[in-house]
Amino acid sequence: MSVEVGLRAALAVAVPLLILLAIDRLDLAAYASFGAMTALYGRNEPYRLRVRSVTVAGIALLISISLGVWLAVLHEPLWLAALLLVFIVAAGTVLATAFQLLPPQTLFFVFALLVCGAVPTQAADALPRIGLALVVAVFAWLLTMSGWLLRRLAGPATRSPLLKELRRRPAVDRSAVHDPRVWLTAGQNVVGVLVAGGIALALGLGHAYWAVVSLVAVIPPARAAHSISRSLHRIVGTVVGVVVTALLLFWAPPALFVIGVIVVSQFFAEVLVGRHYGAALVFITPLALAVSYLSAGAPLGQLVVDRVLETVLGAGIGILLVLLARWIERSRGLAP
User: Fold this and answer.
1) What is the model's pTM?
2) Could you point out which of 36, 53, 168, 331 has its C-alpha 20 to 30 Å from the C-alpha of 63?
């Protein structure tokens, strides 16, 4: 377990949320939390490569947050929400593959767009909210790069559980733009989010974006094997995360406790996301639910019921698309 990566991710979200708590502005928690997710990228990479990964991911998150804020200002017209969602999942899939980002999926970009788009926002508040996300993203960027200074001060011979060996070396893969497997994954996500979101809306489920997010969580990254077992791991991880959140928040705890849930969840999400994505979702799900709970103050019972129903819906559609993608890969010889 890498303590270093978990600590920086936890600090990235803890500091801004505690400041917002101190000034009684937890209504802005979503923008700070998504800006802080910049620290989830660049894990175990040498700093000359990490600066690229974290910068690309941070810019993508800020674009997603900004589009979500302006979507909220315009009162979430359905056609615009669908258009922006298609753009984020398609562009995000190609971007994550080309820069070999880890996490390799568009999950956090989609989350940022849809959650920020769901928070009522006046036009005068748009730029300050985007500015807050920018400040927190820069803070998270600096934290992510802080290990460079720590390693210089400690010296090359120092061994510490806090300073993990940096072995991951992602390269820029320009062939991703022309790879049919990448566009197959982008197509899966585009079709899936539109179908899952449309069905959730037609059924009158609250917070329909969770069906979309569950779908994105189930679809494998571009060029990864379209494994049913891995998709089932993601479904189980999400459902377990919903149950854990219900157990933690059922008693309507104070804001400081909810912030603690977010910080601990971000720590373990970062530690696990590169090892086992299904296990990471056990913590990513409480992270997302706690941010929603803190930002909107929606009743937990409604959040949990919505999440369970929409997780089943999104994951079910995701499984069907995984099966379809396996058939396409085999019939057209696209499988690696």
Assistant:
1) 0.91
2) 168
Report residues of the chain scoring pLDDT below 70: 1-2, 150-165, 206-207, 225-227, 296-303, 333-336
The two structure tokens encoding residue 69 = 């804020």
Alpha carbon distance 77, 69 (integer Å): 13
CA dihedral 266, 268, 269, 272 (to 10 degrees): 160
Looking at the 3D structure of the chain, how many domains does it have? 1
Contact predicate 141/38, CB 8 Å: yes
Cα 42 off chain centre by = 14
Please check whether residue 212 is in contact with residue 85, taking contact to mean a CB–CB distance below 8 angstroms. yes
- With b for 16 or more beta-carbon neighbours within 10 A and e for fewer, the 278-304 pattern comes to bbbbbbbbbbbbbbbbbbbeeebeebb
The answer to whether residues 128 and 22 touch, using CB atoms and an 8 Å cutoff, is no
CA nearest to 36, candidates 258, 207, 287, 233? 287
Helix (H, G, I), strand (E, B) or coil at 190: helix
Q: Which of 250, 289, 248, 247 is nearest to 266 (CA)?
A: 289
Alpha helix segments (H runs only) across the chain: 3-22, 29-36, 47-73, 78-98, 107-118, 123-154, 180-202, 209-218, 228-249, 255-272, 277-296, 300-332
Tens digits of residue pLDDT in 279-302: 888 998 888 888 877 876 556 666
Tell me the three state secondary structure of residue 176.
helix
Can you say whether residue 165 is alpha, beta or left, with left for phi > 0 and alpha for psi between -120 and 50 degrees? Answer: beta
Which range marks the domain in which residue 260 is found? Answer: 3-332
Phi and psi angles of residue 234, each rounded to the nearest 5 degrees, phi first: -70, -40
Nearest to 242, CA basis, from 295, 287, 297? 287
Read off the tokens for 108: 């956090």
Mapped onto helix, strand or coil, the DSSP state of residue 276 is coil
